[in-house]
Amino acid sequence: MTDFTTYLQQANLIGGAWVGADSGTTIDVTNPATGEVIGTVPNCGTDETNRAIAAASDAFKSFSRTDLMTRVKLLHGLHDALMDNQASLALLLTTEQGKPLFEAMGEIAISAAYVRWFAEEVRRAKGEIVPAPTNDRRLLVTRHPVGVVGAITPWNFPSSMLARKLAPALAAGCTVIAKPATATPYSGLAWGKLCEEVGYPAGVVNVVTGSARQIGGAIMDSPDVRKVTFTGSTEIGKTLIRQSADTVKKVSMELGGNAPFIVFDDADLDAAVQGAMIAKFRNMGQTCVCTNRFYVQAGIHDAFVEKLKEAVAALVVGNGIEDGVQQGPMIDMAAVEKVEEFIADAVSKGGKIVEGGKRHGNGGTYFEPTVVTGATADMAFATEEIFGPLAAVFSFDTEEEAIAAANDTDFGLAAYAYTKDVGRVFRLNDGLQYGLIGINSGLITTVEAPFGGLKESGMGKEGGSQGLDDYLSTKYVCVAGLL
Ligand code: NAP
Prior knowledge:
Blueprint: E1 12-14, E2 17-19, E3 26-30, E4 37-42, H1 46-63, H2 68-84, H3 86-97, H4 101-121, E5 128-130, E6 138-145, E7 148-152, H5 160-172, E8 175-179, H6 185-198, E9 205-207, H7 212-221, E10 225-231, H8 234-244, E11 250-254, E12 259-263, H9 269-281, E13 291-297, H10 298-313, H11 333-348, E14 352-355, E15 370-373, E16 390-396, H12 399-407, E17 414-418, H13 422-431, E18 436-439, E19 458-459, H14 466-469, E20 472-479
Parallel strand pairs: 7-8, 7-10, 8-9, 10-11, 12-13, 12-17, 13-16, 15-16, 17-18
Antiparallel strand pairs: 1-2, 3-4, 5-6, 6-20, 11-19, 14-15
């Protein structure tokens, strides 16, 4: 029988040892579906993190020089270990995070797919021989692991967000200090256990839980950490970018979003509603690429709202481990209150609740999947990330108007559009200031493509061939005096 405790690690991995906090203090981890405490994790801080950095620095000396095929083999082993334990890892993920089990199974599968992708991609991490201006020289461009990496991840995808960092780092020959989110630490700690089991040497992967400020501070302060990769809110991302200046670290930032979803009159209505449901309600609306704003052209607006409303009303809300559940609880009460504030703000400015709108009868942090129509640019969700199961529907008349409204935000992560007009597809590609654009699809994340935002949604890419670049530094060697 599947058991979520198979990979439940209640200690931290530092330098190859599973340890508690120096202070002996711990933090409770709660199941958002039931409110029950699942277990505890160490409440570590600066000293433990500095030891993890020292272990990673030491391990880097040899790991960065391991044969390419040794690293590739380790990654394939990690991929297989993830898939062999998919059911128990997914159950652990749902238990700490709340998403429905089928989504958690998908998250473990894509995590493993990232590992395999980078095992394949690193074999093509080529340098260059550049034509020299004179015959007595040869100019070589070579690529090397960037060094010790700090990886800080959010609670909404506690496995796959780490996969996108750990896999390219390990492929490149880097060593890592990972800091999972406090709400969902076990999926990150499980990666530590899996890496240990498949044979990564001590110190190559370290996982530290506890005070974000202290762990983050130690990572940012250390001159030995050469790269920091962060997924989380724009606010914390900006703090880390500032902190990176003192040691001039390489940073990649996967930050917040405010995705527009534009439905044109010529769209396939059923396909648009189906895409809308995925783009809005996956993980209870708690994904960085979740639709924040639906823009629907006047001619199709009422029909779209009617069908969206029906689909939203049919969503099954409950504990994610139960069969048939499509919407679990929200991560915590603060998230519930934030959605309530967005709804109250919209209603006070003329918005109309056409479906849901309040806490769910299940109690706890369950919230009714909600649709609000009559949305306008002065409502808070027009500019702020909702991060909850609330669909806000705006109406528009022209393509130019829709593109301008879609771009009227500091964010630039994902945008979606439904249309059958091929010319418009390319106008949207030119006009939308977004790093990811889904045309006639509400789900576009895949390991083969570069994932990452523009504007205040971040910098750097994860996945694709670009996903390895951030973990490699480039050297130029001029060999002179050859004639
Ligand atoms: P968050 O509050 O920014 O936290 C993210 C991580 O940063 C957590 O591990 C957190 O630790 C840590 N952290 C907090 N304060 C820190 C500090 N001062 N120094 C160093 N680390 C610190 O974000 P979240 O609420 O977990 O995640 C939701 C956000 O992530 C949303 O904005 C979402 O859009 C974004 N996101 C973006 C992407 C993307 O690919 N662009 C993907 C997923 C999510 P604690 O948990 O201990 O506070």
